[in-house]
């Protein structure tokens, strides 16, 4: 077994603290990875604090993982020792259901998420990337271009794919007017990606302090979502709005901005329900409210390659792992530009 150092949450109310556990030795199809960086997603905070009611402690969070391959199993063909690789939100799925066959492993009925998920190989619960190493089946490991800064590429593994996938699914491109709601980890990637796809991008934010940044990141316009008059100026004008907000709020103020047949796609997962949206707002213009979950492995690789080609990474603040609890508090106050990334070398416990 492989001794692994980490930070874990042991219940919903206390801080993450140092923890160690064993990873499995690599099997024939496994890639063993020393973790260099791990992004801090708002989902980590939701899970650690049991805001979705599915926490199984201890939880080692982290699903925006960048590392170096240190060993490969005998059947691994696509990866070499020393290569920089990524691991996102999924580490396994059934591989046989229609969703898996369509390269949409995120919709498999029996997925294995990177943490807080039943570990069907080793038993127990999966442990994520706030740790010194991980062992993952090669199907769930991603290639990371040398063109991408490894720390700033980490958030692409969740924030990047979660915004890229719906933009692609709804075929966003030149001529489309796209709204992104919330300038956090997901939202700032949504702005960069929608801009790179050629859309006219409008960022909706509750934070006046983020206006200049949003424009630097690629937004053509910025609207303060609490300003009813500014919102009204955009009525009936959007093809697509991607809502990344991590808290319950009124959706009607966004659906009424959609054109006929426009879509409001939700990716934020608040801990309490949004107020019921107005049916009239939907039926009179055949508008839709939809949802989207991360992306499959094939599309995640496509997104990483798109980012390498377009020189897109996340705007990050690197933190030592000892600052993770303070980082969660700052994330709750929207005080991060725009993703914390843990430097895993600060675990100060080398793998042996
Ligand atoms: P984040 O960095 O905390 O960003 C969320 C942003 O939402 C904030 O920066 C803020 O933007 C806005 N916001 C927060 N509280 C708000 C409130 N009460 N009212 C209005 N706006 C508010 O979070 P994240 O990591 O981007 O994650 C966002 C959500 O997506 C989380 O719920 C997370 O669990 C979920 N998620 C879903 C998927 C998926 O596959 N569907 C994948 C990853 C994450 P402004 O300051 O600009 O208003
Ligand atoms: Zn995430
Ligand atoms: Zn499946």
Walkthrough of the structure:
This protein is an alpha/beta fold and 352 residues long. The chain folds into 2 domains: 2-157 and 314-348, Medium-chain alcohol dehydrogenases, catalytic domain (Quinone Oxidoreductase, Chain A, domain 1), CATH 3.90.180; 160-291, NAD(P)-binding Rossmann-like Domain (Rossmann fold, 3-Layer(aba) Sandwich). Helices cover 23% and strands 26% of the residues. It is built from 11 helices and 17 strands. It has helices at residues 42-48, 98-101, 150-153, 159-169, 185-196, 211-217, 228-232, 252-255, 279-283, 297-310, 324-332; strands at 2-8, 17-23, 30-39, 65-72, 84-87, 90-92, 112-113, 133-137, 142-143, 177-181, 200-205, 221-224, 238-243, 258-266, 288-291, 316-320, 339-343. The strands form 4 sheets. Strands 3, 4, 5, 8, 9, 16 and 17 form a 7-stranded mixed β-sheet that branches. Helix 8 links the parallel strand 13 (238-243) and strand 14 (258-266). Helix 4 packs across helix 5 (185-196) and helix 4 (159-169) crosses helix 10 (297-310). The longest helix has 14 residues, at 297-310. Bound molecules: NADP nicotinamide-adenine-dinucleotide phosphate and zinc ion (ZN) (2 copies). One zinc ion (ZN) binds at residues 93-94, 97, 99-100, 108.
